[in-house]
Amino acid sequence: MHTKEEKLAAFGRLLDIMDTLREKCPWNAAQTFESIRRLTEEEVYELSDAILSGDRPATMKEIGDLLYHMVFYARIGQEEGAFDIADSIDKVCDKMVFRHPHVFGPDAGKATTAKEIADTWELVKAKEKDGNKRVMSGIPKAMPALLKAVAMQEKARGCGFDWEQKEDVWAKVQEEYREVEDACRTANQDQIEGEFGDLLFSVINAARLYGVDPEAALNRTSEKFRRRFTYLEEQTLRNGLKFSDLTLAQMDRIWDDAKAKGL
Fold first, then answer.
1. Which residues contact 108 (CB under 8 A, 6 or more apart)?
2. What does each C-alpha distance from 65 to 21, 38, 162, 171 come to in angstroms?
3. Which of 36, 107, 131, 231 has a 20 to 30 A CA-CA distance from 47?
4. What is each CA distance from 172 to 145, 149, 155, in whole angstroms?
């Protein structure tokens, strides 16, 4: 592992490279906050994929790619006279010091569990906000719906608004399920959509309470579906057939074979 001096030198090298590219590369010079935002979103997902796959070399690379984007934004901010990378770093440092009074404040050194910190996290954050900001205001509207639901539930938990016993959530899931069934008997599509949303939100909440990452769980099931459907497709083509040549019962038999093979 590198020393602190070597890490600082590496970061300085990244800043120097960004300055050079911004001044001498026509493509880099033409970029704006808006033009690289979409690319940053791609980098976030690539980092997420690397982490989920357990690929540490890929994770290392993707962290570097994402860090490059952060430096890129800061360089543009510097050119606009709005802020530079030191401002961004100082801002997050100040925030982390404020939000960890058990480490940097008067309570430093006192034993605190990870659960205690998580349970009061939003209350600590609320102290640094002005009176016009609300707990949920920091969650982006453009955030994917599943991740947004988790973020909202976590923020509510951090304010003490959560189920007292995790088992209590199942009554809510069952209630929402019945309401979906009732709504589907109507012709009101808006009501049906709303009830499906309520059911999904409650299932995500249940997963959270049981320590399951719903994004990872759904991705796992999606990949399982991909494997089994690919097997169904390959078997169909191997027999010189098309999907339209098969009955649903025949497809089910091939699907069950894929399950038996552990796909």
1. 101, 102
2. 15, 14, 37, 45
3. 231
4. 20, 16, 19
Please choose, from the candidates 147, 150, 157, 152, the residue with its C-alpha nearest in 3D space to the C-alpha of residue 137.
152
Nearest CA-CA partner of 107 in 94, 118, 117, 92: 117
Q: For residues 147 and 215, is the Cβ–Cβ distance under 8 A?
A: yes
Q: Nearest CA to 21 among 60, 79, 61? A: 79
Q: Which residue has the higher pLDDT, 178 or 154?
A: 178
CA atoms in the 13 A half-sphere facing the CB of 145: 5
Give the DSSP H or E segment for 152.
helix 145-158
pLDDT tens-digit profile of 9-49? 999 999 999 999 999 999 999 999 999 998 998 899 899 88
Is 140 exposed, middle or buried (CB count within 10 Å of its CB: 0-12, 13-18, 19+)? exposed
